[in-house]
């Protein structure tokens, strides 16, 4: 039995507790929430700052961890993708070591579950041994070339078969983005996923993406042509790219839209009114790293949607830390609050990845893992500008 307390205990449900003690079983399950005054006879371990549930990283590319600091910042998405392709041919032992180190980095910082994009099976060994829960999104694309769809399906189904579906880890098939997946491949993904599974997809990261679907023009068409994949028969749909997702995924699918840097209130309304369950993942440091922009968070708040947080990869970020993502949002969007972002980082993420039965909130009977944020609390506000985070109880 262990007893933990802090200046504030954030439950993940949008509120916090003061003058409370968490009673945990030896394996970290929450057994009771006690008053400080009732704990004189037990040894309470006290933490300065905040205790909260374990963080949920809803978007990562763990397999790209070997590319840390190798791709320039501020280039824009299309040059960024081109550079990523160039660095894929790396000795396997370097890739494996970088993956293991990144996994440990996330765990140490308080991340207990990750939605991880996988194009290959490089992360399989690390995930089997990791203390983190992984939802592996086996990402498929065919460059909108239906002549390539069958071979792409075969390639990615082989990857899918290697990953495990267990009480700890999950897997599903997902499309890469609106601009890289044909209708035929969308159909395969839709027919081979259930309503309980989460479908992750990159969405509205760069102006060229919306231009492609609004007008049938722009840099993406030249980008594909340079790789030998001309989109000769492609026609725009006179709508933004999120509408192409809506056209190609059934409404009962549980969808996790990633980045959403350019999503407007109209885009958000369209997705929310169509899908039965939709979550919006923000990766602010990656948005700044690649395009030097951030989403209009006020549009999401106005629509009352469920936001989550992700780190993207070490190719497009300086670290894999949910706390650092929160710091970035509050640095540039001070109208948001720490209290709001904690819910994005915990409860919402657990719901998006289907781990809400155990993770995401501090409630009796659950085992969410616990994170200590060594923050200052001044005038009733939590200041995380110089804070650090660490996992103090495993999930």
Report on the structure:
- It is a single chain.
- By secondary structure, the chain is α/β, with parallel strands linked by helices.
- It has two domains: 2-52 and 364-393, Roll (Urease, subunit C, domain 1), CATH 2.30.40.10; 55-352, Metal-dependent hydrolases (TIM Barrel), CATH 3.20.20.140.
- The protein has helices spanning 77-86, 92-109, 124-129, 149-162, 183-191, 207-215, 219-226, 241-248, 265-274, 284-290, 297-303, 322-332, 338-352, and strands spanning 2-10, 16-17, 20-24, 30-35, 44-53, 55-60, 111-118, 133-140, 170-175, 198-203, 254-259, 277-282, 306-309, 370-373, 376-378, 381-383, 389-393.
- Strands 1, 2, 3, 4, 5, 14 and 17 form a seven-stranded mixed sheet that branches.
* Cα end-to-end separation: 15 Å
Number of helices: 13
User: Radius of gyration from the CA trace?
Assistant: 21 Å
Beta fraction of the residues? Answer: 15-25%
CATH architecture of the largest domain: Alpha-Beta Barrel
Number of strands: 17
SSE-based structural type: alpha/beta
Judging from the principal axes of the Cα atoms, what is the shape?
Answer: globular
Mean pLDDT: 96
- The CATH superfamily of the largest domain turns out to be Metal-dependent hydrolases
Instruction: Specify the biggest β-sheet.
Output: 7 strands, mixed
- When the domains are counted, the total is 2
**Quick one: CATH class of the largest domain?**
Alpha Beta
Give me the CATH fold name of the largest domain: TIM Barrel
Helix percentage: 25-40%
> Which regions have little confidence, pLDDT < 50, spanning 5+ residues?
none
Elements, N to C (H/E): EEEEEEHHEHEHEHEHHHEHEHHEHHEEEE
């Amino acid at each position: 039995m262990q007893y933990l307390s802090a200046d504030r205990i954030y439950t993940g449900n949008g509120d916090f507790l003061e003058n409370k003690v968490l009673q945990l079983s030896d394996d970290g399950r929450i057994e009771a929430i006690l008053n400080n005054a009732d704990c004189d006879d037990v040894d309470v371990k006290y933490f300065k700052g905040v205790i909260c549930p374990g963080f949920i990283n809803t978007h990562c590319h763990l397999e790209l961890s070997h590319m840390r600091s190798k791709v320039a910042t501020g280039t824009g998405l299309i040059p960024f993708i081109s550079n990523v392709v160039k660095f894929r041919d790396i000795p396997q032992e370097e890739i494996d070591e970088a993956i293991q180190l990144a996994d440990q980095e996330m765990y140490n910082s308080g991340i207990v579950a990750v939605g991880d994009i996988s194009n290959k099976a490089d992360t399989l060994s690390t995930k089997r041994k990791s203390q983190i829960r992984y939802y592996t999104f086996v990402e498929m694309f065919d460059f909108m070339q239906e002549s390539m769809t069958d071979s792409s399906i075969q390639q990615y189904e082989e990857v899918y078969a290697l990953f495990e579906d267990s009480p700890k880890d999950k897997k599903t098939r997902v499309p890469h983005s609106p601009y890289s997946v044909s209708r035929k491949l969308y159909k395969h993904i839709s027919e081979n996923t259930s309503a309980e599974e989460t479908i992750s997809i990159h969405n509205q990261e760069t102006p060229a993406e919306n231009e492609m679907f609004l007008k049938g023009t722009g840099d993406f068409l030249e980008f594909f042509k340079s790789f030998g994949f001309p989109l000769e028969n492609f026609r725009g749909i006179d709508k933004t790219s999120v509408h192409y997702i809506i056209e190609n995924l059934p409404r009962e699918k549980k969808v996790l839209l990633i980045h959403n840097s350019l999503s407007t209130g109209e885009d958000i309304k369209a997705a929310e009114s169509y899908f039965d369950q939709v979550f919006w993942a923000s990766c602010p440091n990656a948005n700044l790293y690649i395009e030097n922009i951030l989403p209009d968070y006020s549009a999401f708040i106005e629509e009352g949607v469920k936001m989550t947080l992700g780190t993207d990869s070490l190719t497009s970020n300086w670290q894999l830390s949910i706390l650092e993502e929160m710091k970035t949002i509050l640095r540039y969007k001070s109208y948001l609050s720490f209290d709001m972002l904690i819910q994005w980082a915990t409860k919402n993420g657990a719901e998006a990845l289907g781990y809400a039965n155990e993770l995401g909130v501090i409630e009796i009977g659950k085992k969410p893992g616990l994170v200590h944020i060594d923050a200052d609390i001044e005038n009733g506000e939590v200041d995380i500008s110089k804070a650090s985070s660490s996992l103090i109880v495993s999930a």
